[in-house]
Design goal:
With about 70 residues, the chain is mostly helical. The protein is built from two helices and no strands.
Length: about 70
Amino acid sequence: MQIDFSEIDTSAYNEMAIAMFIFVLGIAAAAWLISAVLSQLKVPAVVVNTIITLIVLGCLYYGARYFL
């Protein structure tokens, strides 16, 4: 018995890949912007890194729940 892969609709995969790409770029842009603002406010690097890490992990958690 052979499986006919030509009948599988991959358009949903393509749309999901584009949405995930935009989501990851959004996370990177938000992290960059927040780190730039915090560094201008003379916040110590340890605090900035912790805040950025928590924001990125929260966004990835939300993304995993949304996309999966």
